C-alpha cells in the first residue's frame, strides 16, 4: 500500500476543516473518495478506494488503494484459507472450523484461532441470490447459515446447493418503513437456562450457554444434546421486540418452533428501529434500539429507545447492568445497527448519524454517546469523554458509510455500508505493531450495492456479506439480493 508521506490527498479538505475546528491540529491525512458506480457483476475490479489513517491520539499518514478488490496497491498477499470461489456453506452438521469453509461464528464473531490484522482478498463470490430485502445473517455451530427477510418475516436456510429454503415465518411481523424482521442470533442452551434446569440465577452475569453468534462456537459434543434457539428482533403492530424460537430438525430440514417473548415494549417507528441482536462473550444478549424518531428519548434512561440493551437469555435484567433494574447498557444512540467484540472483550458499535457524521464507538457500560446533542466527534478528541458524552473513535460522512452490520476477525473490524455501498475495515492497532493509530480502508465501493450485514467464519478465513438493494432504497440488479463470500488474508492492508 502506498503511503502519502506529506501533504493532503485529494478530498481531504473537509476533514482538515473539521480537525482544525475542533483544535486537534493537522494530524489527519486523508478522506475516502466516493467509489465507482456499481457494476452489474462481481467479476473484475471492484473499483478504487482511498484508505484513511485515523489516530486515536495523533495521525501519521494516508493510504491510497490500488486496483483489484479495493484497498491495496501492493502485490497480492498469500491467501489464508479457502478460495473465495467456494459457492455454498457446508450443511452436514460438521463441527465448526473442521473442513468447513464457513465455520460457525456469526455476526460479531472474532474468528477462532485468528490473531493480528486481516484484509479481504479477491472479488466477492455469490453464495445465494434472489433474496427479498434480507437483513441479518446467523451461522449455527455446525456451519449452517440462516438469513431473514425484513418484509416477509421468513427465515431461510442457505443449503449446500446455494438455494435458500424457508424454515419458517416469525409470527407477528408488521413490516412498514424500516421495520419488520430485523436481527437474528442463535443460542445453544448448554446449561439448561431456557429449559429451567440450570442453577444459575437469571439476574446474574453468568449461567449462559453457547452463543453461536459470539464467535466462540460450541463443540459438537457439547451441543449434541442441547437445544438451539433462534432469537429474532421484529417490529410488530405495537412495538419492537425480541422473541426466541426453538430450532428444530437438522441441516437441510430445519424448522422453527413456537415463539416466546424475550423483551417487549421497545418503541417502534417508520425508521430508526435499530434491530441488531448479539450474544456477547459474557453470554448476555445485547440489543440495539433506535430512537424511533423521538431523539430526546435517547437521553432518558427510563426509555428503551436510543439505547444498547443487555438482558439474560431469558430476558431478565442482569444484576451487574449499569442502571439497577434496567436493561439499558448504554444511552445517547440514534440508530445503532452493528456490534462486535474483540478478543480482549472490547465492545464496538456502529451507528447511523443524521445528516453529517456516522460513528464507530467503543461501548462501555453506562456511557452516554451524546445523541441528540452531539453527532460525530464532540469535544475531547476520538474516544474521549467531555461533559459526560463519549466520542466515537472513527467518524464518516453519511454518504460514505450509513453503517449496519459489524464483525471482528483477529484484530480487524469489518463494517457493512448501506448508503456508502462498500465494506469498511477498521484496524484499531494500525497495520504494524509500531503504529499506534487506527487504519481505515474501504473495499468493493459500488460493486455490491448496499451492504446490510457482514459476519465472520469461525476459522477466520472469510467473510459473508449480505446485500440490501431490494429494500426500497437501492438499485436492484439481476440476482439481488444476495449472500456473497470473500476470502481473508493476513495484514491490515
UniProtKB/TrEMBL annotation:
Record-linked SUPFAM superfamilies: Soluble quinoprotein glucose dehydrogenase
One Pfam family per UniProt: GSDH
Chain residue ranges for the region called Disordered: 63-102
Segments passing through the bilayer: none
Domain spans labelled Glucose/Sorbosone dehydrogenase: 131-473
Name assigned to this protein: Glucose/Sorbosone dehydrogenase domain-containing protein
Source organism per UniProt: Subtercola boreus
InterPro entries: 6-blade_b-propeller_TolB-like, Glc/Sorbosone_DH, Quinoprot_gluc/sorb_DH_b-prop
PANTHER family: HEDGEHOG-INTERACTING PROTEIN, HIPL1 PROTEIN
Amino acid at each position: 500500500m502506498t503511503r502519502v508521506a506529506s501533504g493532503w490527498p485529494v478530498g481531504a479538505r473537509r476533514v482538515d476543516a473539521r480537525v482544525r475546528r475542533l483544535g486537534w491540529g493537522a494530524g489527519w491525512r486523508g478522506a475516502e473518495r466516493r467509489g465507482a458506480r456499481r457494476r452489474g457483476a462481481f467479476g473484475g475490479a471492484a473499483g478504487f478506494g482511498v484508505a484513511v489513517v485515523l489516530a486515536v491520539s495523533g495521525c501519521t499518514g494516508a493510504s491510497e488503494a490500488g486496483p483489484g478488490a479495493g484497498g491495496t496497491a501492493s502485490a497480492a498477499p498469500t491467501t489464508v484459507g479457502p478460495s473465495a470461489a467456494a459457492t455454498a456453506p457446508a450443511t452436514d452438521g460438521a463441527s465448526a472450523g473442521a473442513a468447513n469453509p464457513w465455520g460457525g461464528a456469526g455476526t460479531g464473531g472474532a474468528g477462532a484461532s485468528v490473531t493480528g490484522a486481516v484484509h479481504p482478498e479477491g472479488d466477492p463470490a455469490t453464495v445465494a441470490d434472489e433474496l427479498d430485502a434480507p437483513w441479518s445473517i446467523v451461522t449455527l455451530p455446525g456451519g449452517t447459515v440462516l438469513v431473514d427477510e425484513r418484509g416477509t418475516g421468513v427465515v431461510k436456510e442457505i443449503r449446500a446447493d446455494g438455494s435458500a429454503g424457508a424454515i419458517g415465518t416469525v409470527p407477528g411481523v408488521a413490516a412498514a418503513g424500516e421495520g419488520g424482521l430485523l436481527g437474528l442470533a442463535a443460542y445453544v442452551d448448554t446449561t439448561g437456562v431456557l429449559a429451567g434446569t440450570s442453577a444459575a440465577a437469571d439476574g446474574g452475569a453468568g449461567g449462559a450457554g453457547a452463543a453461536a453468534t459470539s464467535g466462540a462456537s460450541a463443540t459438537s459434543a457439547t451441543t449434541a444434546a442441547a437445544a438451539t434457539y433462534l432469537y429474532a428482533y421484529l417490529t410488530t403492530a405495537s412495538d419492537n421486540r425480541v422473541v426466541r424460537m426453538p430450532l428444530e430438525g437438522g441441516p437441510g430440514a430445519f424448522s422453527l418452533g413456537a415463539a416466546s417473548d424475550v423483551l417487549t415494549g421497545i418503541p417502534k417507528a417508520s425508521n430508526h428501529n435499530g434491530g441488531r441482536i448479539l450474544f456477547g462473550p459474557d453470554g448476555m444478549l445485547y440489543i440495539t434500539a433506535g430512537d424511533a424518531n423521538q431523539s430526546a428519548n435517547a437521553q432518558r434512561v427510563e426509555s428503551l429507545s436510543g439505547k444498547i440493551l443487555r438482558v439474560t437469555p431469558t430476558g431478565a435484567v442482569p444484576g451487574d447492568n449499569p442502571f439497577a433494574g434496567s436493561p439499558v447498557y448504554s444511552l445517547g444512540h440514534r440508530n445503532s445497527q452493528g456490534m462486535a467484540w474483540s478478543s480482549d472483550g472490547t465492545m464496538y458499535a456502529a451507528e447511523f448519524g443524521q445528516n453529517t457524521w456516522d460513528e464507530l464507538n467503543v461501548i462501555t457500560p453506562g456511557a452516554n454517546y451524546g445523541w441528540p446533542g452531539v453527532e460525530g466527534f464532540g469535544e475531547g478528541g476520538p474516544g474521549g469523554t467531555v461533559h459526560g458524552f463519549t466520542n466515537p473513535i472513527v467518524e464518516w460522512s453519511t454518504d460514505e458509510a450509513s453503517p449496519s452490520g459489524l464483525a471482528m476477525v483477529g484484530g480487524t473490524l469489518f463494517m457493512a455500508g448501506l448508503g456508502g455501498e462498500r465494506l469498511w475495515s477498521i484496524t484499531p492497532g494500525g497495520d504494524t505493531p509500531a503504529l499506534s493509530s487506527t487504519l481505515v480502508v474501504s473495499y468493493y465501493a459500488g460493486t455490491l450495492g448496499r451492504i446490510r450485514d457482514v459476519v465472520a467464519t469461525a476459522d477466520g478465513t472469510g467473510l459473508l456479506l449480505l446485500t440490501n438493494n431490494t429494500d426500497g432504497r437501492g438499485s436492484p440488479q439481476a440476482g439481488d439480493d444476495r449472500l456473497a463470500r470473500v476470502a481473508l488474508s493476513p495484514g491490515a492492508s
